[in-house]
Amino acid sequence: MSVSLLWAVDVYGRVYSLSTGGQQWEQCQDAVLEFKRVTAVQQCCWGIACDHHIYLNVHSSDVPIRYQEETYENQRWNPKDNFSDHLLPSDRWHWSDITGLEHQPLDSFLLPSTNWEWEGDWYIDENFGGEPTEKGGWTYALDFPATYIKDKKWNSCVRRRRWIRYRRYKATDTWAKIPSEGHSGPLPDPFNDISCGGWEISEEPRGRLSLWAVSLQGKVWFREGIHHHSPEGEGWEEVSLPGEVVQISCGPGDLVWAVLWEGQLIVREGITRDCPQGLCWVVVDSPNPEAGAIHVAVGDNVVWAVTKDNKVWFRRGINSHNPCGSGWIGMVGEMVMVNVGLNDQVWGISCVDRAVYFRQGVTSSELSGKAWKAVNVPRDGDIRSHSSASISKGGPQRAVLEVGTCPSSPPPEPPPIDPDVPKPRIPKVTSDSFISEMLSDRQVKQEAATTASPSIPEEEVWSNVDLEETQTHLAVGLSSVATYTLCQGEPYGADEHPLWAWVSGGGCGVNFWTLLSLPALASSVQSMSLSISPAQTAAWRKQIFEQLSERSKREMDHFKHYEQSVWVKKGAMQWWRDWKPHKWVDVRFALEQFSGPEGNQDGILFLYYNFNEEKKYLHAFINEVTILVPVLNDSKHTFAIYTAERTKQRWPIRLAAATELALLSVSCCDSRGIQGPPSKQAIWSVTCKGDIFVCEPSPSLEACPYPTPCDQMFWRQVGGHLRLVECNSLGVVWGVGYDHTAWVYTGYGGGFFQDNIFTQTDVKCVYIYENQRWNPVTGYTNRGLPTDRYMWSDATGLQECTKANAKPPSPHWTWVADWTIDYGISGGTDREGWQYAADFPRSYHGHKTLKDFVRRRRWARKCKLTTTGPWQEVPPIPLSDVTIVLCGAQSSVEPIPLWAISNKGDVLCRLGVTLLTPAGTSWLHVGTDQPFKSISIGGANQVWAIARDGSAFYRGSVSSESPAGDCWYHIPCPERQKLQQVSVGRTSVYTVDQNGNLWFRQGLTPSYPQGSSWEHICNNVRKVSVGPLDQVWIIADKVQGSHSLSCGTVCHRLGVQPMEPKGQSWDYGIGGGWDHITVRGNSIEAPRVRMPSLTPSLTSSLTDPLRPPPPRSLLPVMITEMENGNAVRC
């Protein structure tokens, strides 16, 4: 789980943050002023200080906030001066933007505020369209504006070049003041309330936020231009109102509610991507007409409110189509304020004891939750002040976190109260009396601290009266009594209880299932389970497992002379009949499994079905099964069975069953004697569905001339769900999910030992397309020609897909959002998300021309998968690619170089990666001039990368002393090609371009590691992986099968030798449906075979014993080539 922060302000204006990975409130020591309230999101926190100004605290990250400023230098040719800055009166400016309409000299660029700094001086961009330009960076054209080219021609009359300069945001982890200025000057009155949200309205531009503020006069202001490259925003704009507002709340999406002075509530409608401010307000009555509303809090699909009598209310019926909801539900409890954070988790501050509470039991199906639970976590200053006192008293004390009490248990008796001791006074915090109340109460607090006796305050538990199952749930569920040991120190006394004024959970990423797994609560579980530590539990499990194994072995030794045992499992499932008529057929199955006298196991799977009133059957030997693959199906749990023969034919047995897949997987592994975790040399692969498979390579896999055929490789599944996996031969394995979350492999923990199995989530989008055709009468409509595609279809247009019938990829996925227009599609869109073309299907563009008669737009809907596997999350930066250094089988590298690319295109180098800490410690940002998309590190720390424009780069001077290198070298791409992915081996570099062509880099030498030229190998390639032996594996498309062409097939390059690094031909294995493979962990060299000559007796000579292995070499010895079918039409 990624670490996030819960923010709060105490009644004295001090700001604290509680990390989901910490155990105490940490005070913001750099806050000079006292704050009234804060509003937080995951990347930053906004606050209003007592001077009524707004301040911003941006969280520091390993990837800095950088913004690229650019301007263009334009010149025109004339016979006298050649190219010069003497332009025609009708020309553009000498220094301009890309359009030429705005004058932009170098000295006109100023820093937005003092919170920014320049990284360096201006420099010329010598990269054009992924290819290097001539020295000087000039591009040429016939006239302004026109299409520019990098080479000068005889008719090139104008030229231009781009100048770049980067600025960096430096005010991280500190409070930066935001100017209170609008478009017409300073604002008329200071601010009183603030709320931040809106990051789910649109993903473009990145990191865009909506910031709403309320002034002392009841006016509402909206902060414009807040996004990743401009965290401060650009200016304030006033929003019209039906009355005076006292408080406002903004959710992650399009929900914005506010409270009027009269106690009514207003809802903002019409909030969209193009209009984040919305269009109009709608008035909603207060939950209690006699006691108007004073506070409101909104989330994704919830609205909570507090009235003047401190009663809490929940608004039902809230969704994107009905932001006003349908009615109020009264909740038990009295709160000063509430706040809705991520996952609609609710936080609040009680009006009784001023403690922070969270709402237990909030789920997507029960948004109102179950009960209020107090979070009494110590503050860092409290622990330091009490630590010395606890030691002097001669015994260790402990600070406690009271999470709740069971309603059925009697409440603890309060300690005796001394009447002479004054009670602590809780100030009433308002916007007008905040400072005076703080100062007066601080004096009372100091006087009371000298005489008050310590005591533990009695906690009050509230539950939902409108939910019938609440009392039962609290009695046996998560609300049971729990005292959590957090640290050494004295318990809070009545006068030391922290008094809170405001809380914000907008950046705290917890939910009902992860709330009790936080580190602050993790240690408590041990105290609730008889203080048994995880190490003791693991040792206990291991001891019992060894005793059971010895007992089983001892008892089975007496029965070795008996016949083999046979057991049969029978049941029903469905089988996909792959001949006409194609349909699912109900069949009976029988799995016969037997064990021989030596303990070896094998079995046969029978499928019985009826065809034309005849009883028939299919069968498959378990020891011949090479893989069991889950198959995407929106309504069934389906999987495919492959054998070596069926792999060649691309013709598996498809079955539908809910639980039999696990049974068959265990049987297949037992028949081959495979148990435990994958080896360090394992080959990892990922299907297009996200399932992860591993294969244990045999020593002869890279042998020559007769390697192990790919179709005979056995693959087994590993838990989890990822988009790609990368590894090396030291056993370090990383993965990246579809939601760009980074994961590190923790070691296999299946079977009896479940210590390394963790919950893993992944989020992906399902896309459908809305298609329209233009006609002269009505314009663009959803009425197409008879030969057109469906008006609602998939990307190909061959299958009808509407919002109503579109389903998640499989029953394991669930929808987590509604349908939204996707503006991030390749080629760009207009303001409504449309792309235009002359006809279906053609290349689409984001602007309409006179020749465009069709258009389309893409709709996206997010779905979520929750599964388990031996993977732990590596927060907080989302990644798009990762690579780990290649190593030999006996190598020992400390630390292990690991490079990655963030989802924003930043290049990162991971520090602290070792065998003991495979997750590493921190990221080191490596500067680039443009965003990247693929990266690979090979032997001798060779780092190659591909930029998003398709250009290739080589990183120079990378070493253990300089893990990030010093500079990037631009590598020319193959002619008229843009590269997509790169993989670097020990001495080889392969790339795949956007058209599916595979390229080999020639001329690589230690003195010139950039190489000299590209050589085309083959086409129809999706991914390539080069291993530590320079072996080459790919994911290929359009591989011929017995029925049709197969896409996503694992292929192995044969004939790779030191003198022939490009190899000769392809051997294809499992597929289709594969999307990624990595062989970067397989450094097992093939044994050498004594081969005096290539004669017909060669086959019989291979049966002789192998000669002793020669001295170790990093490359296999290839003797001859082996002809095989070309998998990718080379």
UniProtKB/TrEMBL annotation:
Superkingdom of this protein's organism: Eukaryota
UniProt KW keywords: Autophagy, Cytoplasmic vesicle, Lipid-binding, Lysosome, Membrane, Repeat
Family from the record: Belongs to the TECPR1 family.
Annotated protein name in UniProt: Tectonin beta-propeller repeat-containing protein 1
Bias kind Pro residues: ranges: 408-419
Gene Ontology cellular-component annotations: autophagosome membrane; cytoplasmic vesicle; lysosomal membrane
Gene Ontology molecular function terms on file: lipid binding
Biological process annotations from GO: autophagy
Region (Disordered), start-end ranges: 383-425
TM regions (residue ranges): none
Domain Peroxin/Ferlin, residue spans: 64-125, 137-170, 761-822, 833-866
Encoding gene, per UniProt annotation: LOC112224448
Protein location: Cytoplasmic vesicle, Autophagosome membrane; Lysosome membrane
Main localization category: membrane
Pfam family, one: Hyd_WA
